[in-house]
Amino acid sequence: MIAIQSLSKLYDNDCYGLNDVSLAIDQGEFVFLVGPSGSGKTTLFNVLHGRERPSSGRAQVLAYELTRLLADQLPVLRRDVGMIFQDYKLLPKRTVYENIAFVLQVLHYKRRRIHQLVHQVLDLVGLTNKAHDYPRALSGGEQQRICIARAIVHQPRILLADEPTGNLDPDTAWDIMQLLGKINQRKTTIIVATHDWRIVNKMRRRVVRLMNGSVVSDTIMGHYA
Amino acid sequence: MPSLFFFIREAAIGLRRSGLMTVLSLCTLAVSMLVLGFFLLFTVNVNNLADFFVSRLEIRVFFRDDITRRDKRDFHTVVQGFDTVREVEFVDKAVAWETLKQQYSGTQLTRYIDKNPLPDTMIIRVTDQTKIQAMVSKLETYTTVVDDIVYGGYITERIQLLSKWLRISGWGFNALLLLATLMIIVNTIRLTIMARHNEVEIMQLVGATRWFIRWPFVIEGFVLGVVGSTVSVVMLKFSYDAVAKYIQQQFPFMPLIFNSPILWWIYAGLFIIGTVLGVMGAYISISRTLE
Q1: Residue B59 burial (C-beta neighbours within 10 Å; 0-12, 13-18, 19+)
Q2: Is the pTM for the entire model greater than 0.80?
Q3: Are the beta carbons of B206 and A76 separated by less than 8 Å?
Q4: How far apart are CA A83 and CA A103, in angstroms?
Q5: Measuring CA to CA, which residue among A160, A180, A148 is closest to residue A1?
Q6: Is-contact B195 B285, C-beta < 8 A?
Q7: Would you tell me the crossing angle of helices B210-250 and B153-195 to the nearest 10 degrees?
């Protein structure tokens, strides 16, 4: 599903964002990407989401070779790779329903189908009663749930979560991780970049540790000290 | 591909939700088009004024005293032979003298000039003022008939040159103004789009194609263009009519353009230019943002 070989990302200031990274992730896996700030987690996500082009190496995501990705393939890739952001990136002038429905409109779903899917996903994240609220009226945890709902409503095969619990208290963070675990049970591949060692150690999933742009460890049912 | 209705609805939502920026963009577009329209009207009026003066240029041929009526008739036939001649008027020297005496009836003109000093005169008006010089050169060769020719030679050339430069500089200035208007509109709409940068970014992140993102903004640009240029055309028409009427009352000899089809062409042109600039502005702005 994701096959990365000797991938490097060299910036203009001669700093490596990624340095000779090799990694393979199968369908339905749940992977934690850990490491200190500047270790390359966000760069790797940016490459996998087509926001940055790698300098060398190979990165295959589903049917797309990211080093040779054409401009018109990028939107199609992103429909298969959902993204959850630490800062939520919700549209403040649209309601919760509209924020989620927006993705389906982009994908040309019919109105009736949109209505059905949005309610299903709101039910999954437990926010059916907030459908007509605006994001500013929601708590941080609720906004992150909406962000997750938006990322999964069109059932992407891969979900990237960049510090999804970074702004949340421990209880809410744990709720969010439980939710991601539930989504993973539907065979969605999930990669979570995090600093939160408590969650990593509690979940006991595969842990890939990055340091200075390189993979320093990759353990199944790993932990993060 | 979603229906056009979807994009129109998205555009309407966009305009409504960024209300203040929409109003500011509309005002900027309307004022820019108003300034452009004002200078267009100014240019056509200046050109009209120049044409008015040039069209009044005429050739006056003074006949020799010793020629016969038949010589004058033959010369008249020669003059009529020029394809640029619009009108030929013969002024008999006796009639001219009587007219002059009437004009200066309160003076002692006849006390000092007892004999008619005026020659028979032919006044020639032409269709193409630029050919005056060439025509005069040909008429001057008829030395057996012609005593003198007056056509305001130097002044004619100056007025024609002035008219030419007014025309070129007027349209050149309007072209520059059009470019400036486009830049103002592009940057105003760009500000509107930058205010919705998050929206564009999220659209990209969830897999929207470039055209899916562009369409609502282009439709918004179209609406801004239509409304803004309509406002500017209405304001321009009423203010021009009022100002032109006032100038006409104060300076009746000024040949201003009134109720002419050219005015309607300008108003229609401004409407189309405003609409096109709105669409172009939105397209350029959103494309730059997407880059």
Answers
A1: buried
A2: no
A3: no
A4: 12
A5: A160
A6: no
A7: 140
Per-residue pLDDT tens listing for chain A (225 residues):
899 999 999 988 888 889 999 999 999 999 999 998 889 999 999 999 988 889 999 999 998 999 888 888 898 899 899 998 888 889 888 899 999 998 898 888 888 999 999 999 999 888 999 999 999 999 988 998 899 899 989 889 999 999 888 877 888 889 888 889 999 998 999 999 998 888 899 888 999 999 999 999 998 877 777
Which residues from A are below 8 Å from B209, CB to CB? 72, 75
Amino acid code (one letter) for A100? I
The two tokens of residue B177 are: 């103004």
Predicted complex ipTM exceeds 0.85: no
Give the one of B6, B199, B204 whose C-beta lies nearest to A91's C-beta. Answer: B199
β-bridge partners, A207: A32, A219
Partner-chain contact B206 A102, CB within 8 Å: yes
Residue B242 neighbours by CB under 8 Å, 6+ apart: none
Distances (CA, A) of A120 to A171, A199, B21: 24, 27, 36
B261 and B267 Cβ atoms separated by less than 8 Å: no
Work out the minimum CA distance from B7 to partner chain A, whole angstroms: 10
CB pairs under 8 A between A and B: 40
**Beta sheet of B59-63, edge-to-edge order:** B85-91, B121-126, B59-63, B146-150
Bridge partners, B88 (sequence order)? B124
